[in-house]
Amino acid sequence: xxxxxxxxxxxxxLLCTVSGIKAQKLTLSDLNKLVxxxxxxxxxxxxxxxxTANYYDIHLKMIRIWEKDKDxxxxxxxxxIASKEDKPYRQRVYHVFLLNDSTIESKIYLLxxxxxxxxxxxxxxxxxxxxxxxLVYKAGCDVYLHKKGxxxxxxxxxxxxxxxxxxxxxATTEVTIETDMLISWDRGFDKADKQAWGATMGGYxxxxxxxxxxxxx
Length: 217
Fold this sequence. Notes:
Elements: H1 12-19, H2 28-38, E1 40-43, H3 45-50, E2 58-65, E3 73-81, E4 90-100, E5 103-111, E6 135-137, E7 143-148, E8 151-155, E9 170-177, E10 181-189, E11 195-198, E12 204-211
Antiparallel strand pairs: 1-2, 1-12, 2-3, 3-4, 4-5, 5-6, 5-7, 7-8, 8-9, 9-10, 10-11, 10-12
């Protein structure tokens, strides 16, 4: 099967220059590897125990949905405080695909009526009820990932990801994904580029607790 790349508005050369990442060539097997690393349950418990003042104990789950879709991978994503897994504070759907031979893009979607899909309130079978009509695209919040050695590194581009939380104007994400760890640094900034929310000492370190089954195309 040939690889079909999507055309992006942003120059990948610019993205690599801004992030300081020297782009390595990517193949479909790299995409498969990335999503297999992302698929599973994660916890920031170790980081929380070492620095309770700056980091909460967060649980993160990423579960593949729509496995018959051939246009990249789709993941249901859920984050919650460890003691409140029945009330996740963030639920998203990611569409992860090869943008070109040096960049993997993850498009971010909100869910309408998200709590009906919370994994502690129902079960994974309910995720099959997610349809395209359930999603709302978060324009400007796409995450661009590049291969750097044995990890994938990247984030959002510019300040186009709107956020109104706690007086913020926009949000940014920086992410590093390895075989058994995911580091994510989400922050909100006001119109004066002053941080309004998010960790201030660096990203959250999520250790992988369990891998979920991942079928290839």
